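User: Fold this, then the next.

Assistant: Folding the first:
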Amino acid sequence: FPSHDKGKVFRVGIDGGVFFVEDSRNADAMGSGCLSALTAMDMGADAITAVKMAAKRDVNTGGKIRHYKVK
């Protein structure tokens, strides 16, 4: 990443064989329950609560929830 991007959070991945880098300015979620989690966060839930809510609707979401604070 260029030096002027220090301190920013990026989402990096591969979609359809295409490598991408996105500036993550808003709440983000990945995985099978991501749409439910994003909707929960749009409605005011914090990230942990959003994952718990997504797990109620998506059978592939669950297990131990780990969270990390990015400073």
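Now the next one, as you asked:
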Amino acid sequence: STAINISNNADYSKNFKLKVEEVSFVSLSDNNFIIKSGENKEVKVLVNSSYEIGVYEGKLLVYSNYFSIL
């Protein structure tokens, strides 16, 4: 697995929602959380290793307060 860090640079707490699309064998350690102002959160990206080695394309969507930011 690997991890991504999400930071909140706003002056207020923000709700974040993450979603993986187009790859059923990838999941996240957390997909809905609040980050306080000036803080960050590490989210692990988990991959099911039973799939054949290869190149797979998918999307990681990150939403904050219902607006897409990535």
